[in-house]
Design goal:
This protein has 430 residues and is α+β, with helices and mostly antiparallel strands. The protein has helices at residues 14-22, 37-43, 51-69, 111-124, 134-137, 150-154, 170-174, 183-188, 207-221, 225-237, 264-271, 304-307, 313-324, 331-337, 401-419, and strands at residues 71-77, 84-89, 105-106, 243-244, 260-262, 287-288, 292-294, 309-311, 341-343, 348-350, 355-359, 362-371, 374-380, 387-392. It has an 8-stranded antiparallel sheet, with helices on both faces. The chain has a 3-stranded antiparallel sheet with strand order 3-8-4. Helix 4 (111-124) packs parallel to helix 9. The relative contact order is 0.23.
Amino acid sequence: MSASTLSRRHRIRRGALITALTTCLGAALVSCSNDGQDGAELAAGQSAGSPAAAGRLSVLAQQAADTGSLGVIVRVDSGDGKPVEIAKQAAWTKDDHRLAAGDRFRVGSNTKTLTATLVLQQVAQQRISLDDTVEKWLPGLVKGGEHITIRMLLDHTSGLGDFLLTPEFLPSLTGQEKRTWTPQELLAITPEQDPPTEPGKTYSYSNANYEALGLILEKATGSSLAELIEQKITKPLGMKDSFLATDAAWPAGKRHATGYEPDAKRLKALLSGAVDLPEDVGFVGPRRPGDNIDTAAIDPSWSWAAGGMVSTAQDWQRFLTALMSGRLLPEAQMKQMRTTVDAPEEGGAYGLGLMKVDTPCGTVWGHTGGLPGYSSEIYTDATGTRSVAVFTITNFGIKEKKAATTNKALVDAATCQMLGKPQPSDSPTG
């Protein structure tokens, strides 16, 4: 879900395992590597959606797939009704699935933006206050809840740690143990931050924050989270390919992307010097070429309000543009959502379920997501007119140096194309 995979933006540390496995707080949008041709073309007057620019993006997508990303879906909507859609994959992955731009995908912690939107809708209706304490809504469930507010849950300043690396949960995360976790059970095993942090003081990403928010939403409305998502978001917006996962199953008759992660030996080597993984810790699933594991059957339902949504690039761009253009929240709540705290490890700042990321081509808003086998970055411009989605069918796999470089180049180029700017050309892709 995107808490932290080996966030390409994060420093590699113990928390990086969290980042890598659940949030995949995506690649820092730094300069994209290319030969400079696209910048010259756009500077000469060609639009970001021109065949030349789209062709260059397609080349970068295939390069990323062939150097560790394994497969990528890119969708760029410049707001002119002519989106660019690209799906590229490594040759061997075609034996499992022919990737298409409309495939369903586990979008991980992008779910947090949706959960935050539901909370702020309740704030607008005065059912919930951002200054309410967690203890008011979930008495006795969260340690220190009398000092933690809903606002702190939303912007990750609660002081709560994350449950992902606990001995109780790690086997479920990797698929070694098949267990259905309730949000209450996950909050019960959530540790304090190390070192302890006073609520409201410091940003520290935690999936536990959004597990608590899901429970508060259900208590405040009397509806299940899945019902709220359908009633308030997916049905009104016509998001027919989006739903909250309740188990590992993919709906029959619908296309979905197959995700992969490095096997246990390769994973341990990838994290060497940063996280000392036990020998037996690895993802469970069918073995695939290149020391990879098919992780599509690992149950993501534990991620729930923090990262449980399945969607498509088009569906999620529809949601994010509706949100950022003011269709889902009143102006006052949009202002609250965009009020940020410093989050340098995310490449910018974090609002209420929303990332603000500064890129070479301008500031974008959105979120990132990561679950075993699935990594995503979805952004819009400030007005919600333009949007971009980059889906990658591995999460840990893009930690390797070459894979990280080409994936960053792709995300950066797609983001610049979305903003109508020349693709950066000051760093090599090779």
